[in-house]
Amino acid sequence: MAASKKPTNESGEAIWGMMGEFKSPYHITKAAEMFRDAGYKKWDVYTPIPIHGMDEAMGLKTSKIGPIVGIMAIVGVVSALALQGWTSAVDYRMVVAGKPYFAWEQFTPVTFELGVLFSAFGAIFGMLALNKLPMWYHPLMKKDRFLRVSDDRFVIAVEATDAKFNAEQLRAFFEKAGGSNIEMVEE
Amino acid sequence: MSHAHVDVDKLMSRDNTAFPAGAGKILWIGLLAAGVVCAAIAILKAKNTEGLAGFQLVASYHAGLMAAVGASLGALFLVMVFHQTNAGWSALIRRQVENLTAFFPFMILLGLPLILFKYDIWEWMNTKYVESDPLYQSKASFLNENFFWMRSIAYFLIWFWLARSLVGFSKRQDETGDKWLTAKARRRSSYGLLLFAMTTAFAGFDWIMTMDYHWFSTMWGVYFFAQGVGAALALTLLILLILNMRGKLDGLVTVEHHHDLAKLIFGFTVFWAYIGFSQYFLIWYANIPEETAWFALRRTGPWMNYSMALAAGRFIVPFLILMPRPFRRNRMILMFTCVWIIAFHVFDLLWVIRAEAHDGAHGPVALNAWDALAFAGPLLIFAGVVVMKIVSGPLVPLKDPRFTESLGHKNYV
């Protein structure tokens, strides 16, 4: 993103976006539906609790985490079978307890566990990557009012890089959606 | 919040929540009659056939009966778990699960003919045959005929009492609307689940595992349970889908309930495979002859193919079908999967029971059309009883206090 396009405030600081507070899960869900329908793309909802139905209200698509976990599970299963098969049936053949060299039965527990382990890695690291975590700095964290989002505040924030971002109109839209304490957020 | 706008009176109209009097009568009478005919032919033919061929028929009949009993037990378990966990979402589907528990009295009737063949099915009952067998002698204090029949009657009485009282509470609530009946059902489910766990495991040991009294597996009770709950869930979902397709429960039982049942079916598919594999794996690994004989039999001749078909059909296929979310919310795919799982549930019981019909010299014989007739008998009667129950009353618990919660139920993931 080109820095020159970013709006600035009176003192010349770059603007990250705008935030507004809402009263309750019910009010913020209604507001999220309005932001969704108005066509905003780069915005997010911050709440102290998970709110059922928020995905739908925000118009979020199904998470991409499923296919990531699926691929990782297959990688785990294949590498477990390859490791066990190669070591016991190819590289160092040895009869153990009268079982065949390549015995799927005894490979199954490790194959299952490695499938689960890789899936878990896929889920955790995939989630971190999709959420752009770890993130060491976020402009919203400078706002004292925003910090209460982990306690009892419900906040919507729209980023300045959104195509529809216009400080005047957005402030009016926040008010229409029932927001209060609407503030600019500096970078 | 979403159900606030729903016209509840319209949803609760008699048209949507019950069949008109006399509907479906031809169907359930037909199913019962067909079942009685199949069962009678199988039993008579078995009685008049000497040796192994006769026993094969009885074993298939026994497999059909146990498939029905397993599904009924699975349903009884689900009813108690729904009550015990106070599961709001389940209120609207519970009546159909309750209908599946109506089979227990018929289980006793259908089990009576097996007494004629008890020395074939439960060889250890023949005391002359086993008196010099040390492997029997060490089990004789538990595994003797008197105790066996006493236990069998106890299982029946406990299941019948639990099913009857829980369904009774639910039906009484339809009329009186007394919300304390829900609390009563919940209390009964608490110790009911404990009784259920013991009796189901031991019924599995007694009626099925002791067909080969040398063999033993501590996993057996859980395997019998896993089979039954999977089948009960698939049957419940199938009934609900058929009712929805026939224009019943419209707006009451929705894709959200289908989705949750499909998740449970997926879970119990994996659970069945986990238990089945663990049982096989430990015995395979330890390689002790008296334990491996049971599996060796099922790896002989055509039964090796049956074993592989069972693993593919009861686990891999439903596992892959039920994995993607859109498939768990698609009526046609769910209907196919339910029928598939029920078919493989029956096949599973055949694999377990029918394989025991063999003489020492040869492996078990391949399944044939007569086997189908024999296992169809008890299963058609089971189906007839369930249809009779479905058409004879309200299709949902009308005044369950968790009704609105179930109506607004949604899957967010």
TL;DR?
The complex is a heterodimer of chains A (187) and B (413). In chain A, 47% of the residues lie in helices and 13% in strands.
Overall strand count of chain A: 4
Give the total of beta strands of chain B.
Answer: 0
The SSE string of chain B, one letter per element, is: HHHHHHHHHHHHHHHHHHH
Low-confidence sequence ranges of chain A: none
Mean pLDDT of chain B: 94
Shape of chain B: globular
How would you describe the overall organization of this protein?
The complex is a heterodimer of chains A (187) and B (413). Chain A is of the alpha+beta class and 187 residues long. Chain A has a domain of 66 residues. In chain A, 47% of the residues lie in helices and 13% in strands. Chain A has 6 helices and 4 strands. A 4-stranded antiparallel sheet of chain A has the order 2-3-1-4. In chain A, helix 3 runs antiparallel to helix 4. The relative contact order of chain A is 0.27. The model of chain A has no long low-confidence stretch (mean pLDDT 92). Chain B has 413 residues and is mainly alpha-helical. Chain B has one domain. Helix content of chain B is 71%, strand content 0%. The longest helix of chain B has 34 residues. Chain B is globular. The model of chain B has no long low-confidence stretch (mean pLDDT 94). At the A-B interface, helix 4 of A face helix 13 of B.
Topology overview:
The complex is a heterodimer of chains A (187) and B (413).
Chain A (H helix, E strand, L loop, with lengths): L14 E8 L2 H14 L4 E4 L7 H5 L6 H27 L12 H27 L13 H4 L6 E6 L7 H10 L3 E7 L1
Antiparallel strand pairs in A: 1-3, 1-4, 2-3
Chain B lengths: L7 H4 L2 H4 L7 H23 L3 H34 L9 H6 L4 H8 L6 H4 L5 H4 L3 H4 L7 H32 L3 H29 L11 H26 L9 H32 L2 H9 L4 H20 L3 H4 L2 H23 L15 H23 L11 H5 L6
Helix pairs in contact in B: 3-4, 3-18, 4-6, 4-10, 4-11, 4-12, 4-17, 4-18, 10-11, 11-12, 12-13, 12-17, 13-15, 15-17
